[in-house]
Amino acid sequence: MSAHKQNIKQTPASSLPLILAGPIIRHVDNGQLVVWLVTSEAVTIEMSCYEAEECLGGTAFDNDHGGYVALGAHAHLHLLTFSPEQTFPQDTWLSYDIGIKPVANDAPMQWLSETSPELMYGEAKRPDFIIKSRIDHVLHGSCRKPHHAESDGLLRVDDVLATAREADADIAGQPALLMMSGDQIYADDVGGPVLLAVQQVIELLGLPDDPVEGLKNCSCGKELRGSDNNFYGRTKLLPDDKASATLRETFFMGASKPVFTSANADNHLITLGEVLAMYLLVWSPVVWRYVDLDNVELDQEKRARYQTELPYVQSFVEGLGRVQRALAHVPVYMIFDDHDVTDDWNLTRGWEESAYGQPFSRRIIGNALIGYLLCQGWGNTPDKFPVDLLDQVRDVLEHDTQQKHDDLVDLLLKFRGWNYSLETQPKLVVLDTRTQRWRSEYGEGEPSGLMDWEALSDLQQELIGQDAVILVSPPPIFGVKLIEVIQRIFTWFGYALTVDAENWMSHRGAAQVILNIFRHPRTPKNFVILSGDVHYSFAYDVRLRDHEESPKIWQITSSGIKGTFPEKLLLIFDRLNRWLFASHSPLNWFTRRRHMHIRPRRPADHTGRYRHQRLLNGNGIGRLRLNDQGEPEEIEVLWVDGQDIKFGAGYERDWH
């Protein structure tokens, strides 16, 4: 018997519920409401919007509307866009409803109270939300790994939204938006139970079994699932040649990083079907009902690893109903970081040459980008994505060939439209720090700048003339100096990949340009930077040295939603950073931020707090409240254990 054997539970399509995932509110402004939804059948849809019980209008979608993509035989994605005849009212409660009617039969239209009654808070008839005239309240976070040991931080989003709907609540309690700043999925670090679920969902929904090039004895997804190396052994699928050995060292080396990451690269998602299944599994509890996590046979070593991960995944699944409810009640914006595609994505020029030079790894990256486009990026700013690009995606999903798939991957790798901005008050600017890299001139192993000259020039033009801005940079612009120094030392010795040496200060050119943007005389006066990536949380006040009219800058980092840093190691880093880079330390003048004045904020009292703590380590979601000028009034992290931990202003002696 094969070491990985699994028998897929056969479920007739007729037993699947109409809604598999969603609805998720995506882009919202006073002229547009965008909702993401996946159904199990081809359907016609009606969507209506209400203020109290007054219908503000509605629109109908046929089974081949402009936001429709057939993901598989029993998975149909809909990006629904409703634009009212008159603009939506702001700063008041609105609600929406979605009616669904299968094309294949004469069943009546079913609305959300019938298809998904569990989505509602209290006695509500429909999901509700508020379009804020200014951003006064933001939830934000990153890094959500299903098989991480602790609970899901998105459960605290559900808590916040439930509280905002209590009878005596003010509209200020409803967040203007939820910003997810990277690693919404972990395509490269997949627990065994999650991979099993992914593959059962592919069979259940008829998701694509796309061709795979460059593997031994595997030419498509179905053959991959039948391989002895399917679970915990995918690096062994590469041919035994020099090029494959190089690829293993770069693309699949996550497991050899003992300090900064702990990756399960041996279960890396490969096919497009696997990526699409992963998104359905992280946004909704529905398809998990058809998954049998006991239906797998592994050898003793792999079984032990699987059993360790299993309770964490089961706990994750138990909370997904609340996550699905939360995402239906607040506008959600997203941007990728590396794990949405693969660890260390585009970290160095050498990494790019190795990964993009091999058809196997190039296809993995391309499949992750297709999944990101459909399940994250498209909903941020739907009008930004060309119709011909989406038509090409549809063609690959419906009539896939090796050449069509490769052509689409080539197109997505050249696409420069992943970043976006919202004309809100204050303006929200979301950076793509992954696909517009400033490649190092000093060597193929040197870290690339997170954005190139052209992208940074465009950013500066975007910021000029704004009074206040919220800038979303997945990696912090102002990080922990000690950790950045350690990364720099490893880079000197040629081990940039070993310590994820990708921070804004790691590349001289990119660092100088981003810091000069803050020094520009027409830069915003209030500058809030939201970040994630690092698996711990902190907040800094930042000012220019020797400038009487310095902009006010706040670096606010919230990470992870479901993922933490090694606890003892972070404690050591926190203390050493405070000692080595104190206000009087000459070491500050050897950093690229020597012209910036930085003061760490202090987290309030909480369980496990230690003296002089600056870095918080725990699963949760960040919360930011802003005043009318776009200045933070309250910065806090909402932990899954119920603790709400505020970052108070540091002391004057803390400036360094």
SSE layout and pairing:
Layout: E1 19-29, E2 32-39, E3 43-51, E4 54-61, E5 68-72, E6 75-82, E7 93-102, H1 112-115, E8 128-130, E9 137-141, H2 154-164, E10 177-180, H3 192-205, E11 211-215, E12 218-220, H4 221-225, H5 242-251, H6 272-283, H7 300-318, H8 320-327, E13 332-334, H9 349-356, H10 359-380, H11 387-398, H12 402-414, E14 420-422, E15 427-430, H13 453-463, E16 468-472, H14 481-492, H15 508-519, E17 526-531, E18 538-544, E19 552-557, H16 567-580, E20 596-600, E21 602-603, E22 620-626, E23 632-639, E24 644-648
Parallel strand pairs: 9-10, 10-13, 15-16, 16-17, 17-19
Antiparallel strand pairs: 1-2, 2-6, 3-4, 3-7, 5-6, 7-8, 9-22, 11-12, 14-15, 18-19, 18-20, 21-24, 22-23, 23-24
The end-to-end span amounts to 63 Å
Helices, by number, come to 16
Low-confidence stretches: 254-263
The biggest sheet, with number of strands, parallel, antiparallel or mixed sense and barrel status, is:
7 strands, mixed
Mean pLDDT: 89
Tell me how many strands there are: 24
* Overall shape: globular
Strand content: 15-25%
The helical percent reads 25-40%
Radius of gyration: 24 Å
The assembly state of the depicted protein chains is single chain
The helix-and-strand class reads alpha+beta
Numbering strands along the chain, what is their spatial order in the largest sheet? 13-10-9-22-23-24-21
Q: What does it look like?
A:
This protein is globular. It has a domain at 416-619. The N and C termini lie far apart (63 Å). Mean pLDDT is 89; it is low at 254-263. The chain contains 16 helices and 24 strands. It is 29% helix and 21% strand. The protein is of the alpha+beta class and 656 residues long. The strands form five sheets. It has a seven-stranded mixed beta sheet. It has a seven-stranded mixed beta sheet with strand order 14-15-16-17-19-18-20, with no helix packed on it. A four-stranded antiparallel beta sheet has the order 1-2-6-5. This is PhoD-like phosphatase.
